[in-house]
């Protein structure tokens, strides 16, 4: 949390006052009073979270039910998956990553965490790896693919990762044959000491991808690079199952 | 292991957008959408402030998803258009009861959501609402209630990453047959109590995994099986079914990387590094390093000096009649012995040929 309670309260009070002014200006009827918006985070009573009523009162259609799409009786709800969704259910594992703009076409190792919680890199310097303890590419959440920038003797699979730019496409082939296409949003280089765990691995509402390698200065004593390069990408298409 | 207290040149400044987004005022204007355009429409305007802490400067879009939660309303078409200009941004068709769309990424701004029966006329929406999207904040806009009393709600969805091993879940009560509903796990852990119609609860944390849930609403009871993966954030929509009972629809709101890794990844061995650094931290190590360095410099000096000396001798060999192995002349040779001079001249010629040959072959052999 980056806000102090004090500033949240001040902001909330201001917002509430403004809401009240607008309420008056628009001459709304008092039939509906603004209530606390349901949802959001813990119910601390923070007025900053106060919001317009959950719902506005509907006006009854004067013209019967036909033009309003009324069915006259209850229906069974659609309990299936979201319509218009480009996401997958996460059951299909990724098998290959392709990034044409930097010449990457690699199979994927299955990556795990070590005892301290750090993500272990691929064993093979020539191969990228997918963090199998996380979400699958194409499913909601940040799927994580990591690869080495170099070995001790020369370039490795993600040697040119830092040259990716916003708009570049990244393809991930799933075990069921579908190809999820992601589009690069941004690329950051950041000290491992300051690694933004929440930003990279934290919750997101859409299917996204993180590509991770190393960068910056190599510390000869530590035996590692001091920085990580992280590519943030969002899913923009998924091919139908062949 | 060296410890790294290096102050990184972080590229990210995550605070400003959150502050900017939070400054958006909460406003409501309920406009009776009467007259020529849509006599039957209900139009609401709902602007939401983002949850503190969720947005980051790097995230430039917000997200919106749409839900049809009215049990006696047929499938609908839904249009999302920018309030300014009226450009249609998204269009969904034939969305049936219970359907919840995926999130659509939207530029911050105010949008109008309009619903019509499938194939209907968008100049006469059955419900219409405007909603303000801010960067980094996901929202759910739902139409709920019975068809004759259709209402719209906008819920602010949550992006707080669940603690390790946990999932987060809330309830949206959209059933029309019971006034309130309570949801608890079969093990007795309460998720939401006495939730009124149209209300979305706060999120509760439960251990990730499969759960059997009990829905209780007075005499009406129901159970549902849900799988709440660790690291996931979900909404449980309480709905009606065709036979007068309750149904539960779990929908994934968002997800973290599951079993969350911590910190960076060691994805390089330095073979191509342009810049190397040494970060030895204790003085003993430094003394050893200095000592090693001094010995190395000394050894290098000896090698270089020796090499230069040998090279100078070799270069001077053509000027001098004496090769090192010929310096010590046999005692038997007499200084004025002609044969001695002849022998010496001959050997010298042979030696010079040999040195020239060595010099020519030398560089390739040394490689």
UniProtKB/TrEMBL annotation, chain B:
InterPro entries registered for this protein in UniProt: DUF4397
Comp. bias (Basic and acidic residues): 328-357
Provenance organism: Subtercola boreus
Residue ranges of every copy of the DUF4397 domain listed in the record: 63-183
Protein name according to UniProt: DUF4397 domain-containing protein
Region: Disordered, residue numbers: 313-367
Pfam families linked to this entry: DUF4397
Biased composition (Polar residues): 313-323
